[in-house]
Amino acid sequence: MKLLRLNLVFLLLSAAAFAQEAATAGQTILVVPFENQSQAPGIEWISDSFPELLQERLNSATLFILPRDDRIRAYDRVGIPVELHPSRATLYRIAEQLDVDYVVLGLYRFDGRTFTTAAQLLDMRRQRLLPEMNESGPLIQLINIQTALAWDILHALRPEIAITRQAYVAAAPPIRLGAFENYIRGVTAPTAQEQIQHFREAVRLNPAYAQALLQLGKAYYRGKQYEPAISSLARVPEDDPLAKEANFYLGLAAYFQGDFQRAESAFRLVAAQLPLAEIYNNLGVVSSRGDRKSAAQYFQKAIDADPSDPDYHFNLAIELYRMGDAAGASRQLHETLSLKSGDAAAKSLLDTITPDASLAQRAVVPTIQKTPLERIRTNYDESSFRQLALKIDAVAEQRLAKADPRTHAQFHADRGRQFLIQGFLFEAEAEFREAVALNSSSPEAHAGLASVLESENNSTAARAEAEEALRLRQFPEPLLVLAKLDLRDNRIEAAAENIDKALHLEPSNAAALALKRAVAAKLAQEAQPLPNR
Question: 441 with 471: CB under 8 angstroms?
């Protein structure tokens, strides 16, 4: 992805001026397949399961685990077969090319009774190996063992996290071991037919397995089986971290199926969370079937995000030409040809536009059949976007270190709020704690921390933070945290009182109204009258 995206190149260029030891807002991690040191048959697939499971468990707003495709491309560049376990020297060279912060190295053994794994973090910035981490247990507990290892890695990178290993493992989404094995075998299968077979079996065994649903949908899409692709991808919940990628491919499948309305809906969901130029372009392509003005706006957004891509200029030119703006179309076609001189379709369309034509002179809009089709993008590049976002955050954090504590604290409180909305509780807690440390008089920081702690079932600490927020300022959020805690403790009267206080401050507060309905339902269930307020 071009660094011109987001119009924040200057931030990345200025980052070079900062010291190597500068604090970062996030880290990028490469997990390589673990080495099988066991003689037991039938467990070779576990080697590739470590990168997949650790990516699922660790991926977050501030930890980005490189996906398998990125690792395979890096192996290809240095001429290493994907099934080979490279030496540490070669891995170091690969990690340098990928510009990652850490590499996770590991091995595993099985003696017939106990499965044991060991892992180390290679710190690329300080050029040293961190202490070894070990986990073991019965083979049937493989997923819990790997999840515990994920906690070890997270704790090594974020020593301040409050959640225990036991709580972390218990909170992880459950996966049936048979479904997990089929998923890994599907990921590594050499043919499309075998991939689909394994992913279907994984979904059959574990119907809510989002990773398997995504990969099954993508496998169908690659085989141009658009109907089953749509069916599989639509089953990935919208609040799942994989929903963005699932809806990108759902949008493509729906587009090639001719269902432009569904394609637009899917691309809109992605654009709301991931402002990629590709998404804006595709929204323009599907919107052009109905609202041409909207389509032109989307193509312009794609150009603003990445002005060096000729296809985005070409698509905007088509839309402007259809709208009767020959002069604007001509400008975009000239830009297309300056970026890609051999673009025959752009040159042909430009030849049909009279050089001195004005908007008034070109009042007759040509039919779609007389103009080429817009170019849809089929590459999903969340990886590049997230790595860029981490670097931008690092630069922003370094600059804010020189700002006054109140401004710096507000930055962390705002980021904490974003992470909380996205469900990244660990990151949200860290941001709110940093905000409190910088400005202990910030009611927003205390309230945000109270919300996180309530979500983590840390009732005592959540209540203390909510009460501190209310001491600083009266506003709905901490009152609703107290109401939730009261409900959990079956203190219905106290919960109703805090909800009414919140509604008095903000009558239309949706969360307060929802809680009020929950209290009413609980009282009705217990056959008690709702307290009069």
Answer: no
Q: What is the mean pLDDT of each run of 10 residues along the chain (533 residues)?
A: 32 31 62 93 95 91 84 84 79 86 95 96 92 96 97 91 86 93 96 97 96 97 97 93 92 94 93 85 89 86 92 94 91 94 91 59 45 87 64 66 84 85 74 89 94 89 94 95 92 92 93 89 66 57
CA distances from 61 to 7, 412, 495 (A): 21, 14, 33
* CA nearest neighbour of 345 among 324, 372, 365, 316: 372
Rounded alpha-carbon distances, angstroms, from residue 91 to 52, 67, 80, 87, 315: 18, 16, 10, 6, 41
- CA–CA gap between residue 4 and residue 277 (Å, rounded): 11
Burial of 148 (0-12, 13-18, 19+ CB in 10 A): buried
Distance between CA atoms of residues 236 and 505, nearest Å: 38
Helix 443-455 / helix 425-438 crossing angle, nearest 10 deg: 150
Could you tell me the pTM of the whole model?
A: 0.71
Longest dimension (CA), the chain: 83
Name the residue type at position 337.
L
Q: Provide the 3-class DSSP secondary structure of residue 401.
A: coil
